[in-house]
Protein: DUF1735 domain-containing protein
Amino acid sequence: MKRFAFYFLGLFLSLGLLSSCEDVEKLTQFNLDYNTTVTIPSTFGVQVPFDVSTPAINTSSTSTFESNDTRKDLIEEIQLTEMTLTINSPSGADFSFLESIEVFISADSLGETRIAYQDSVDVAAGESLSLTTTGVDLQEYIKADEFSLRINAVTDEAISQDHELNIYTKFFVDAELFGI
Structure:
């Protein structure tokens, strides 16, 4: 009977430790949200590819990491989990003018990496478009002081007015808890 009690106690303690480890790991996981705007110029043709880049986006990563009890050197992985484009103007516009779109990230001394895309934009997409993310580790880009995004898209209809877009990005950060 004593043996059974010791086994039961050991099992109970093991389960408690595993649960605690998961709770501790959640302390070092958080999201970073960024918003930026970009203007797509009016076009004069169909099936016309275009590129447009955002201004540099300040990451404030050092202070953000500190406020989440971690540091740049303790980051294990950063992935883009969500990217949503929303048309700010003109009012009533939608994404039906796009055939396809892909978004790339770049930073000083780092090459460009594709981070999100939509190979076939639905004609009923509306004024908001959620892109598929690539799941690539982006920690070096977010650790940099700033990064830029470049949109490469193909139109399937002409637009007669410039379109101002808001680009919302959500990055999931997984870090070590002060080296543990």
About this structure: The first strand starts at residue 29 and ends at 40. The helical segments are 2-27, 61-67, 139-143.
